[in-house]
Amino acid sequence: MKQNEATLISYKLTINAKGKVYTERSVSEIDELKERLTPIMFNTLKATIRTAKAELDKVHNKIEADLNGRIFNN
Fold first, then answer.
1. Among 15, 22, 55, 60, which is most buried by a count of CB atoms within 10 Å?
2. In total, how many domains does the chain have?
């Protein structure tokens, strides 16, 4: 990532060396950027992040249900 860029929202599906699968969602608090953004850009980002969080929650719940429904051999 470039020095003048920021990740506002991310979602990862990860497997570790022991075979554990997990998901991770991170969301940046853009309120700290409010002074650096135009009001239109700030409100657009807030709405976009709100929508993305809701959609990623659906994905997360689906993946968790799928993973919980499977039997893993350790």
1. 60
2. 1
Would residue 73 count as lying in a domain?
no
d(C-alpha 38, C-alpha 36), whole Å: 7
* Nearest in space to 28 (alpha carbons), one of 56, 59, 49: 49
pTM of the predicted structure, to 2 decimals: 0.74
Whether residue 34 is contained in a domain is answered as yes
pLDDT tens readout for residues 32-71: 889 999 999 999 999 999 999 999 999 999 988 888 887 6
Across 37-49, b (16+ Cβ under 10 Å) vs e yields eeeeebeebeeeb
Q: What is the CA radius of gyration of the chain?
A: 16
Q: What number of other Cβ atoms are within 10 A of residue 30's Cβ?
A: 18
